[in-house]
Amino acid sequence: MGVIGELDQELEEAYQVAVKIIKEIELRAKPGTLWSEHYLYSLKLAEEAGLKDYFMGFKEDQAKFLGHGVGLEIDEFPVLAKGLDYPLQEGMVIAIEPKFTFPNKGVVGIENTYVVRKDGLESISYAQEDILKIKK
C-alpha cells in the first residue's frame, strides 16, 4: 500500500483493519476449512470495525468475496465467498485481498498470495505490508 504524502486518518485506520483481516485468515485457513467461512469471518471483522459499508467496494457495488484462486487464469477456484461451501485443499494457490473503498477519498487494502500447505497458508508474497509513504 502506497501513498504520496499523508494518508487520510480514516483510510489509514481502515488499512489496519484490512491487515488484521488478512492476518486472521492466515491463521484460520487450513486444508478442510470452507471457502465461505473465510469470507463470512472477514465480513464479521469489517462489521465489528464499523466498516461493513466500505468492505470490498461501497454499498451496492461491493464484491461478495475475499479472495480467489490463482493458476492458469488470474481469477479461478477457489473463491472465498458466501455459499461456496467447499474445502480448501493442500496445494491450492489463493490470493486474499481485503479492501475498503471510500467514495471521493480512495481505496485501501492489502493482497497477498498463498499456497495452502498441510499446516496452513504459506505466503509467497514479498512486498512490505506497512504503508509506503512517498514524500511530495
Structure notes:
This protein has a single domain, classed as Creatine Amidinohydrolase (Alpha-Beta Complex), CATH 3.90.230. Helix 1 runs antiparallel to helix 2. It is globular. A five-stranded antiparallel beta sheet has the order 3-2-4-7-8. It has a two-stranded parallel sheet with strand order 1-9. A two-stranded antiparallel sheet has the order 5-6. It is 25% helix and 29% strand. Strand 7 and strand 8 form a beta hairpin. It is α+β, with helices and mostly antiparallel strands.
CATH architectural type: Alpha-Beta Complex
> According to CATH, what is the class?
Alpha Beta
Q: What proportion strand? A: 25-35%
Shape: globular
Note the main sheet.
Answer: 5 strands, antiparallel
- Number of helices, where a helix is a run of at least 4 consecutive DSSP H or I residues: 2
Any idea of the CATH topology?
A: Creatine Amidinohydrolase
Fraction of residues in helices?
Answer: 25-40%
Overall pLDDT metric:
94
SSE run: EHHEEEEEEEE
Structural class: alpha+beta
What is the radius of gyration? 15 Å
Please identify which CATH superfamily we are dealing with: Creatinase/methionine aminopeptidase superfamily
Short description:
This protein has 136 residues and is α+β, with helices and mostly antiparallel strands. It has helices at 9-28, 35-48; strands at 2-4, 65-69, 76-81, 93-96, 99-102, 106-109, 112-117, 120-123, 132-134.
